[in-house]
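For concreteness, we quote verbatim a single protein encoded this way:
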Amino acid sequence: MAKKVNPDLIIRKLSRKYGISTKEVEKAVTSQFKFVARVMKTGKFESVRVPFWGIFEVNPYRKQKIDELTRKKRDRGVGGGCSDENPD
């Protein structure tokens, strides 16, 4: 079983190690994930590279299926959608 990680403990240790406030460390740690979330919310399915973590991207097959479902909903008059394709 994997050891459970306590993010608060890690933030406090980094704060002491580098002599900066816990707020600054927390902002540095969480900002990259907030950025990924912001990119994902655009619905454009762009890949995002997070240093030391990797590249996060949508499987092309999954994007195709999402686009198809979005098109069907749009054609039926159901609101919403997450495709970046131009319907014209």
Remarks:
- Residues 9-76 form one domain.
- The chain has one domain: 9-76.
- The chain has a mean pLDDT of 84.
